[in-house]
Amino acid sequence: MKARVFLKNNHRDFHPWIFRNEIAKFEGEFEDGDVVNVHLSDGKFYGVGYINTKSKITVRLLSLQPLSIEQIIDRRIAEAIERRKNALISGQAHRLVNGEADGLPGLVVDRYADYLVVQINTLGMERLKDLIVQKLVKYVNPIGVYEKSDAPARAKEGLQENCGWLLGKGPDIIYFEHDGLLLAADLRGQKTGAFLDHLYNSYICSAFAKDRECADIFCYTGNFALHLLKAGARTVVLVDYSERSLSIAEKLLNLNGFTNYRIVQANAFDWLRENSRSEQFDLVVLDPPSFAKTSASKDSAIRGHKEINLRAMKILRKPGVLATASCTQVLSEMEFESLLSDAAKDTKVLLNVLYRGGQGFDHPFLLEVPETRYLKFIITEVRRRY
Known about the structure:
Helix content is 27%, strand content 32%. By secondary structure, it is an alpha/beta fold.
């Protein structure tokens, strides 16, 4: 019999996270990571979730129906797959499960051709790993399932990093086709191997590339650069600090038949600072990593984002196009736009917003959980003042 968690209140607006200060008492024996039933203060059943008393988020809800855990996991994965059939998703790669938005908090599953990459960020999902793989095999039947659970969030759940094949075997670099391009997921690289949340943004950005000299800064394995070149960019400079990522990017550039590129291994901040007067571009893409993991580092993240965007505005010919992103979760869309405005004022330019987007169709988010809406992406025309 499941342990029971009783809330302090007799009414609760839905949110998949239940914090410790919402809980009145526990009833029955349980271990952290177990599945529990949640009840309102009057004893009425509220939902099913998994518990971790060491986390500020003590219970993460999986269902508001009194279902078994096998029924819940089966249903959620089937629903996630069906949800993506109705979205504008094409090619061989997409996100299959996106945490809270798919009713499976703590779980991310990405598909790369015939392989799946699983990322587990919570103790409760860690306990359900075998069941998750079983259901993924049932509905997707992949050649292999790789676990890439190396996100910092695991430490808060008392978990260590865990990377390796859960089912079958495969290469460290998985190639896949998208938008008529050959792209790659590096299982030894960032996130689950590729930035699937930006695939649609790179397609939109490519609409501004024809006959332009471009720079892809924080390029990783070259998703944006490849799209820009496919769309007819005159040249693209790729900048990143990772030798491994750049070597994969160069291989992809060659496999796709492109020659009009230049690769620079450098710290992007330093490169932008050093080239603010010596080089000029018609289009610049900025896709930096997260600059803050907690709200305590938010001010530093704002300064970092403002710095790179200000420098990018300086290396643009006027008018030019700046495609800029932030995946810093603690930074809101309004705050991101505000720092862009401040950078424009300091650079004495005007910004015409041409496109505003975020994570792709396969990365849904819940309005009730603003933390699930993490990616900001803006394409602007940078021009001189009147």
